[in-house]
Amino acid sequence: MSARTRSRLADLRPRNIPLALVGILLVVVCATGSVVLAREPGTVLVAALSNPVPVGHTLDVEDLKQVEVVDAHGVSIVPADEISSVLGRPLTTSLPAGAILPASAVGQARVPYGAAVVAMALGPGRIPPGATAGANVSVVLADVESGRPASAWTATIADTARLSSESTVVSLQLPELDARDVATLPAERVSLILLSTKDQ
Prior knowledge:
- The protein is built from two helices and seven strands, in the order αββββββαβ.
- By secondary structure, it is α+β, with helices and mostly antiparallel strands.
- It folds into two domains: 43-105, Antifreeze-like/N-acetylneuraminic acid synthase C-terminal domain (Type Iii Antifreeze Protein Isoform Hplc 12); 115-194, no CATH class.
- The strands form two sheets. It has a five-stranded antiparallel sheet with strand order 3-6-5-4-7. Strands 1-2 form a two-stranded antiparallel sheet.
């Protein structure tokens, strides 16, 4: 190696080391900055209105967006991870675009045209585990004499409410004509069968 080459290499070494360190520091600072920006203390993501919506409007995914706000305990909000729970439900008041969606401004889901909801108070052993809101079930009227199902109707559970250890009220959504039949059934002879995902 010539003296000229060694001299050039010696000149490069002092400059390369600081540049490398600067590069590493920039990466660390940028990464740290990203973490700080992603974790603003005391803030939460909530649902807000993308468009102005009138009272009675049924919410859909295009009406809503996520915004970050200061966490205020006790304030009526809809957390961003619960937006799906308000889709298809009507507003009880008009709201402008950009407004935070109050949980109290969301009404109960409307019953689709041609359907109806009927409530039944069922005892222990008549509602299978996992039969919660949104599940499809078969409403079975037992034949007391033979022990075999006499009649069955397919329904979707709209809601459940436990009254006591001996009774749970199940709200069932099904076609209106079927709902009229189910409403006349003796609850002590009715059981629910949870349908599989494939059946749903």
